[in-house]
Description:
CATH topology of the largest domain: Pectate Lyase C-like
CATH architecture of the largest domain: 3 Solenoid
Radius of gyration: 18 Å
Shape: elongated
Largest sheet: 6 strands, mixed
Helix content: 25-40%
Strand order of the largest sheet: 5-7-9-11-14-15
Number of domains: 2
Amino acid sequence: MKNLVTIKSFKNGLSIILDNAADFTDLRQAVADKFKEASGFFKDAKMAISFENRTLSEEEEKALLYEINENSQVEVLCVIGKNEATEKQFLKALTQLEEHVASAGNMAQIYKGNVKNHKRVEVSETIVILGDVNPGCVVNSDKDIIVLGGLYGQANAGRDEKEGHFVVALEMAPERLTINHYSYHFQDKHKWGIKQKIQPKIAYETAGEISVDTVSREVFQRLVSSC
């Protein structure tokens, strides 16, 4: 039988290469079988997922994510286009971030799952959220906020009033964002949820204003050097 699904790893994620001509029902079963067979290898890994070689509808993408969830312990942080430069830069920037936090002697707090139901999260350290911040929710940090998902609620970083703090999100569409008491108001609001195409963004304070850029090593290195 033809191999309908091939799984390859890349840094911090998995590429799922799909047969572009197969019936979707067969393809869905093949994804389920692949992840069931490999569940012991992946264990409870947290990864970005990239579907390649086939254009999927939103419903088809959700169906494949369901099979991954049902047949393995893999926690899908987001769905990305692995070959797009912005996502590659985002993953590289996260690696640099880990090094920066460690070298500064800071302990980053990890929040697993979506922030929902109007929850308010208050931390004194940098916080890494493995999920979305849903509308109506608030995340407050004395240092930095990293959202490995969509930021659709409120984020308030840099409450220690020191320079160099930032907010990073795979999808940046907050209700409100402040850094060191400076605010930034987003004009575009997007429907929240997992997106196939994402635009990782970083917000940071400079000269009394909040700037928002597409994530790049250059932007992140500038922030790190200013700390």
